[in-house]
Write a structure and sequence with these properties.
This protein is an alpha/beta fold and about 575 residues long. Among the domains are: about 120 residues, Periplasmic binding protein-like II (D-Maltodextrin-Binding Protein, domain 2); about 120 residues, Periplasmic binding protein-like II (D-Maltodextrin-Binding Protein, domain 2), CATH 3.40.190; about 150 residues, 2-Layer Sandwich (Heat Shock Protein 90), CATH 3.30.565. It binds adenosine-5'-diphosphate (ADP).
Length: about 575
């Protein structure tokens, strides 16, 4: 309890104290100063200004914070500075990023006008007479403190205007601060020419750091009231700058104090702020600072900034790619396997079909042989008759009729042989539009000798021409002969053996029905009739009906059975098509 009371007391004291303290103690104001020749030099240059402000505004305590441009920018970003004294280029960058505003521009009392106060000096060792102008810098090594040093940038503009691409046509040697290092690099032969802020060379000579004639300034330009040698255009002097967080009353007090400053010998004075338009032109030409192209913050920066997410996205993309590759490999493999299985099944089907045809042909072989024998016997009879007549000295003209009969019989035998050959042909042909009538007539012609030999009466109704169907002619014949052969076997034990073959157009399809007056289906056979290898015959294959149904379905049709009373009817149908039949 006592401890809690103590904490409360301390907290209240802390709230009450600052007002009292502020009244007594001056508020600290931090002024950042760009130090291009080290902290000491910076302090020497600007101390008089700070002293003056301290005298003019005693209720503030002014503190100088010197550093490089990068250091000062970071301090502004961290709200640790109230004002800055810096070079015009750095000011331009801060203007865009941190709403910096110039409230005064430096002015040397006996020196140049504030708008033409800063430039760059390009110098070489005096024993290089061949280097005279800026254009002579092509292919040389150039030393400067840093790529973003204002003097260096001022010189780059001059190079570019003379057609020299600094990145491609020169080599840069950046030596870092202080500016004395640039002079050392040229003296040691690490660079052919040095680029420094205007008046820095004169200052070094004055301090005795370099000999008076040791270096020679190249590409000299008129320097107006600036009492130094310069190689570039002149730009406004350094600005005194406020930033976004500078309190407005403080900025006003400081500006008034600066304009009222009465400096002594070698001390800075402050004038109305310049617009710094010429500095903007310079940065625009070089495409740097606020004019740098967007690519500076390109994809690479974005990825580095969001590397955790980028890593996850990369992992996800890799997983996805692997997944896609695996799936497409499996799909390709499965497709190959299916294709192989399909090819094997097709081959098996074709072999089976051929086997059934051969078996049907085997069953019809003897009657077909007999059928061929008839025209051969007739040919023999006619030939003998002709021989006898020739021996008897008959007129050759009288033999014409007999010879024509021989030709007719030979054609008949030839027809039978062609049908047999066609029927046992190995490969099925593609389905094409055909008139089915000739195929059906051929099938009947092939079957009739067998029927005759078995004393079976075949009653057929086949029109001479029919509408077109899309079919493989050989398969059509195979189905019909198969049904006829089954019917023949079914009636074999009947006293009067009758088979019917009827072909008719039934709406948009063609019906082929084969009926017989046999004893009907065996008990329990109906549901297995179309199963492969189902047979009730001693030497049956059990493949005919299953294959016939497969063929019918492959033609978009079907095969059905009507067990009926006294007549078993198998009906085979396929669709008619609009297209005309191919001849
Ligand atoms: P297979 O003729 O070699 O036996 P099928 O597949 O052609 O093979 O016939 C299968 C079975 O169908 C036959 O064994 C038979 O029992 C029966 N069958 C076929 N046609 C008829 C028919 N017209 N009358 C009675 N049964 C038939």
């Amino acid at each position: 309890m006592t401890r809690l009371a103590l904490i409360l007391f301390c907290a209240l004291a802390a709230f009450a104290a600052p007002g009292a303290a502020r009244a007594a103690e001056p508020v600290e104001v931090r002024i950042g100063v760009l130090a291009y020749r080290g902290a000491e030099d910076a302090e020497r240059s600007w101390q008089s200004t700070l002293d003056h402000l301290a005298r003019a505004l005693p209720h503030y305590r002014f503190r100088m914070v010197s550093g490089t441009a990068a250091f000062l920018t970071a301090a502004v970003a961290a709200h640790r500075l109230d004002f800055l004294i810096t070079n015009p280029g750095h000011y331009l960058e801060l203007k865009v990023d941190y709403s910096a505003a110039a409230i005064a521009t430096e002015q040397d009392l006996e020196g140049p006008t504030p708008s033409e106060a800063v430039g760059a000096t390009v110098f070489v060792l005096d024993d290089h007479p061949e280097i005279q102008s800026i254009a002579d810098l092509r292919n040389l090594r150039l030393a400067a403190v840093a790529p973003d040093a204002f003097g260096y940038r001022a010189a780059l503009r001059e190079l570019i205007e003379r057609g020299i691409d600094p990145a491609r046509d020169t080599r840069q040697v950046f030596v870092g601060f202080p500016v004395d290092e640039v002079m050392r690099a040229v003296r040691d032969g690490r660079a052919d020419a040095g680029i420094i802020r205007s008046c820095a060379l004169e200052k070094l000579v004055q301090e005795g750091a370099i000999g008076k004639d040791e270096f020679r300034v190249i590409g000299r330009r008129p320097s107006g009231s600036l009492n130094c040698q310069v190689s570039t255009r002149l730009y406004p002097g350094w600005p005194f700058v406020t930033v976004a967080q500078t309190p407005a009353p403080l900025a006003r007090d400081v500006a008034q104090a600066l304009f009222a400053m009465q400096p002594g010998q070698d001390e800075k004075a402050w004038a109305q702020p310049d617009a710094y338009g010429s500095v903007q032109d310079l940065y625009r030409t070089l495409k740097v600072g606020p004019y740098a192209p967007f690519t500076r913050l390109g994809i690479a920066d974005f990825i580095v900034e969001n590397r955790v997410w980028a890593g996850l996205v990369l992992l996800a993309a890799l997983w996805w790619l692997t997944h896609v590759a695996r799936v497409s490999y499996l799909v390709r493999k499965r497709t190959r396997e299916l294709q192989a299985a399909h090819d094997a099944a097709r081959l098996r089907g074709e072999q089976m079909e051929h086997t059934v045809r051969l078996s049907l042909m085997g069953e019809m072989a003897s009657s077909l042989a007999h059928e061929i024998n008839q025209p051969l016997a007739a040919i023999l009879t006619y030939a003998r008759g002709c021989e006898r007549r020739i021996e008897g000295g008959a007129d050759p003209q009288s033999l014409r009729d007999a010879v024509q009969r021989i030709a007719v019989q030979a054609e008949r035998a030839g027809d039978i042989v062609r049908r047999m050959k066609d029927f046992v042909r190995k490969n099925p042909a593609p389905q094409v539009p055909i008139d089915p009538a000739p195929a059906l007539h051929d099938a009947l012609a092939l079957f009739e000798p067998t029927a005759r030999a078995a004393d079976v009466i075949v009653e057929s109704e086949i029109p001479d021409s029919l509408p077109a169907v899309r079919a493989d002619r050989l398969q059509l014949e195979e189905v019909v002969i198969n049904l006829l052969q089954n019917a023949l076997e079914a009636v074999s034990a009947q006293e009067e053996k009758r088979i019917g073959l009827k072909v008719r157009v039934n709406g948009d399809r063609l019906d082929v029905s084969v009926s017989d007056n046999g004893p009907g289906l065996a008990p329990g056979a109906e549901e297995h009739l179309f199963d492969p290898f189902f047979t009730t015959k001693k030497n049956g294959l059990g493949l005919g009906l299953s294959l016939s149904r497969t063929i019918a379905e492959a033609h978009g049709g079907g095969l059905t059975v009507d067990p009926g009373d006294g007549a078993t009817v198998f009906r085979f149908y396929i669709p008619l098509i609009e297209e005309p039949a191919r001849v």
